[in-house]
Amino acid sequence: MLFHSTRGKDHNRTFEDVLMQGLAADGGLFMPDSWPQVDLERIKTLDSFIDVAKCIVPLFTKSSFSDEEVLALLDDTWHDFSKENFAAIHKLDNTKSILELFHGPTAAFKDFGLQLAAAFFNKSLTKQNKTAIVLGATSGDTGSAAIDACKRFESIKSFILLPDGNMSEVQRRQMTTVDSPNVFTLRVNGTFDDCQDIVKQAFNERSFLKDDQFLLAVNSINWVRIIGQICYYFYASLKINQLEKPLNFSVPTGNFGNVFACYSAYKMGMPLNKILVAVNDNNILHRFFSENDYSKTKVSETLSPSMDISIASNFERLLYDFYADRDCSICDDFYKNFPQSPIKLEKSMWEKSKDLFMSYSVDDISTINAMKNIFASYDYLIDPHTAVAIEAVDKINEELDGETLILSTAHPAKFPEIIKDADL
Predict the structure, then answer these.
(1) Burial letters 1-19, b for 16+ CB under 10 A, else e
(2) Can you spell out the DSSP letters for 126-182?
(3) Confidence band (pLDDT; 50, 70, 90) for 408?
(4) DSSP letters of 42-108?
(5) What pTM was estimated for this model as a whole?
(6) What pLDDT, in 10s, does the model give residues 42-91?
(7) Which one is predicted more confidently, 206 or 271?
(8) Beta-bridge partner residues of 215
(9) Which residues pair with 100 in a beta bridge?
(10) Beta bridge partners of 197
């Protein structure tokens, strides 16, 4: 299995190349040369998340590591989870369940992908006798998950950029109170997009690196993070119905990595009905799926800060694979003048959306109301990001066939002020 860029000028890359490079040299995002297929009959015989991961991760790593190496690594990758099965499923009613992805050490779904990436980072650095700088931007949970995943490896120094704006105090303290000599958090006078621009500029230049030093990406532009998330979609489908029936997934999203991981699982054989793309007032994705309008607007601060973005980086992967049918030239044309000029697809291309995707935008008032309604109806407390995903399901439930799994991406305890203001 080799990898190539969505824009076509960076290709024939091994898994280790993609792991350590992050962003492709031509500015695009790496994709596997083909979609490996998961042995569903084998998955159906399994019980644990790690065993499921052992069926999925090696499908992408063979160009750099033996299966034996990868299987041994996976035995020690995911650590400090409060639930033995890592991802609990809480049933609300006959049509809706919640996938709890917040039982990791930083109480957010990003522990899954970042712990996998950090384990592979360390393995590669040890093999090459080199060190690395981790550079990432965060609007909420990525920074704390990256710091926690990497801090145990002396070969890695982490520099995390925080926007000077909307973030819960718990999220901020998770990043700024870590007493470790290889962890550095930096506040940026700007938004998450400003932080992301700094990261992308650093990856394009790299002039500040030492000869024996890598610059590593921990944002979801790194393909290895997507692999970690693919694993819990298969695991959840196994637990819900033994992968016998297609599910709907409602995914609260900002940078689109979690949605693309769901799409990837589908391309690898997971039964799927619809992906509901749930966003807050920063609605570039909803505008695309509902109006064919992918244009950058000013970021608004909301009660769901991890989704406060104006551009969804991973959306490029979907444009390339789903809409452009893997035509790199089409994808490259899309991004030549973006974000200065919006991306608008030909009608026949854009109308493919309805085959697989639905979307909904949820404002702050509706977010609070959803938190209150779920607590009143089910005696179950949710965070504002999960509330966005639940509200989206409730608003378009009549258009959904079958059972829907709602992704709960952060523990409600990370947002005490919002819970207090909602009188919960």
Answers:
(1) bbbbbbbbebbebbbbbbb
(2) HHHT-EEEEEEE-SSSHHHHHHHHHTT-TTEEEEEEEESS---HHHHHHHHS---TT
(3) very high
(4) HHTT--SHHHHHHHHTHHHHTTTS-HHHHHHHHTTTS---SSTTSSEEEE-SSSEEEEE---STTSB
(5) 0.93
(6) 999 999 999 999 999 999 999 999 999 999 999 999 999 998 889 999 99
(7) 271
(8) 133
(9) 88, 408
(10) none
Cα gap 8→28, rounded to integer Å: 8
Name the packing angle between helices 67-74 and 110-128 (round to 10°): 130
CA dist 304 and 293 (Å) reads 23
- Shortest CA distance to 83 belongs to which of 52, 51, 105? 105
Active site residue 110: yes
Strand partners for 183? 158
The alpha carbon of 392 is separated from its chain's Cα centroid by a whole number of angstroms, namely 19
Whether 35 shows a pLDDT value over 70: the answer reads yes
- CB-neighbour burial class of residue 267 (10 A; exposed 0-12, middle 13-18, buried 19+): middle
The amino acid sitting at 244 is: E
Say what the alpha-carbon torsion angle 181, 182, 187, 191 is, to the nearest 10 degrees.
-160
Number of Cβ within a 10 Å radius of residue 198: 15
d(CA 305, CA 52): 31
Are the C-beta atoms of 307 and 389 separated by less than 8 Å?
Answer: no
Q: Which two tokens stand for residue 250?
A: 């409602």
Q: What are phi and psi of 394, to 5 degrees?
A: -65, -35
Take residue 176 and report the two structure tokens written for it.
Answer: 């700024």
Q: What is the DSSP letter of 354?
A: G
Integer Cα distance of 275 and 392 in angstroms: 11
Residue 139's pLDDT is what? 67
Return the closest-CA partner of residue 162 out of 187, 183, 199.
Answer: 187
Joined tokens for residue 98: 């919640």
Distance CA 159, CA 147 (A): 9
Task: Compute the distance between CA of residue 261 and CA of residue 6 in angstroms, rounded to an integer.
Answer: 16
Q: Are 286 and 361 in contact (CB under 8 A)?
A: yes
| pLDDT above 90 (res 253) | yes
Cβ atoms within 10 Å, residue 273:
17
CA atoms of 110 and 410, how far apart (whole Å)? 9
Q: Could you say which of 110, 200, 239, 274 is catalytic?
A: 110
101 and 109 in contact (C-beta within 8 Å)?
yes
3-state SS of 268-319?
A: CCCCEEEEEEEECCCCHHHHHHHHCCECCCCCCCCCCHHHCCCCCCCHHHHH
Sequence letter at residue 248: N
Checking if the pLDDT of 196 tops 70, the result is yes
